[in-house]
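A note from the maintainers: we've had questions about how concatenated examples are separated. There is no special marker in the raw files; a new sequence line simply starts the next protein. For clarity in this README we add a label.
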Amino acid sequence: RNMSSAGPEGRKKMRECNGLIDSLVYYIQGTIADHEPNDKATENCVCILHNLSYQLEIELPESYAQSIYMQRRNISSNDKTPGCFGTRSRKVKEKQQDTPLPEEKSNPRGVESLWHSTLIRIYLSLIAKSTRNYTQEASLGALQNLTAGTGPMPFAVARTVVQKANGLPNIRTMLHVSHPTVKKTAVSLLRNLSRNTSLQSDIAREVLPDLVSILPESLPASDIVCETTASICYTLFNLTQSSSHNARLLLSADGLPKIITISMNDCNMFSKASRAASVLLYSLWSHTDLHSAYKK
């Protein structure tokens, strides 16, 4: 577990270690089957897999990368802007989200297991069944890692989480736990999922009212709450930016007063949350059909 957080070279060596990932997955499957999700060794295994999934898409061996990106050959190399603030056109993004992964292997081995639907379902099962905060956080964090980025793998994993494995109810439960880092990681995962336009209606229907309900009534009281609040606002931004229906859903959940309160704070400590709330308000105002409702 300690070695798995030693940086890119350490992760590479561990991913390449014959049988290691398979053994970790096998052990977790056994404890879930034996109804022992709170086992300490299970926590360690999940934390290792969480670390090994970090920056996975970037650090994949070239042979896997070629297989995954083979179907994107027709996308111009000029459109491969990295990072969150790329200049990709909407058409390219839509094409990217519609690009499936190569067909899953029925018996994945080694690094292939890290993004396989079997392990995704294991994470969701642990989120639902374990009461250990580190296990919950690591499971959510692994899914967060796998859904980060803009390639076909993150979007394929996001579709598995939301549509194939019905994972939103389990994630939604984590929004209401008292442990702040578990809640923060759950929100960060939802923020990643909400970037996929084909999943936004499902996500809004399932968790938008919950996201509004956990927004603070007043200014966030700590750094971690501030970061969580900013993440919630950006998730709501993704869900409402091009959907008047979802914006109305936010309105009916009494989200507007909270967002206004957060946006009006200019204290440096909470500027991240304040800025995110302001960006969300600006986006909400673009739905001209809701102006009269906003004014009321």
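[label: protein 2]
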Amino acid sequence: LQGYASEMDNPNLVHLIPSALQNKKEILFGNLPEIYEFHNRHEIENCIENPELLARCFLKRKEDLQIYEKYCQNKPRSEALWRQCGDSIFFQECQRKLDHKLSLDAYLLKPVQRITKYQLLLKEMLKCSKNSEGTAELEEALATMLDIIKSVNDSMHQIAITGYEGDVSELGKLLMQGSFNVWTDHKKGHNKVKDLARFKPMQRHLFLYAKMLLFCKKREENTDGHEKTASYSFKNSLKMSTVGITENVKGDNKKFEIWYNGREEVYIIQASSVELKNTWISEIRKVLT
């Protein structure tokens, strides 16, 4: 923030700032200032003498840690901007002054890495504190962190949905998302389509919300010779208030069925593992009840 972000306001360097970057500071840095402020409280350091207070620290700050979700959601925009102007003289000059071996993009990745490091540290602490005081709190803190990582990860996929007419923020909480083999069977429509549908599954990425289940098709696009970015083009949706579920499908314990309008449309869904299938079924059950 000091070596790069504030240098964008330095009158001596203004002429070096590429035009693509003009007025785009908050796209490049996201809510990094907010994360910086948050960590400036040094709460974790205060636990060095009393490690049993550490878990409480995480639990108390559960809501605040959502700032990472905001940061990660902005990350694709930030990366696209960096690809456009990362090799400009302005950034080279800042890096030279700081005497950094790594360029700015390596540091912009730090918050993303940090949010995943916390759960590893909490796991390590749990190993060291079997059945001692505060173990239950540590377990709760770990569960909280895993929850935050899951919601960051889910929201990263969610922002890549394209072609959905409505507003996904109105569908309630995103509970699960993932890729499946899907077969469909429609009562309407002639038999030929029906027979074809039996054999070849479609690859679909499913998003389960409190109010709706979205079926999307994953597309990977190469962004100007760089890493692939995935997007999910919307195919169809089912209102959760009108679906039913069959937990077991003959012949394959990884399959389950979701049906619509009294089995007028049936979707046979195959998960990659039995555990995954069971997790989805229990989440869907919760919504339906």
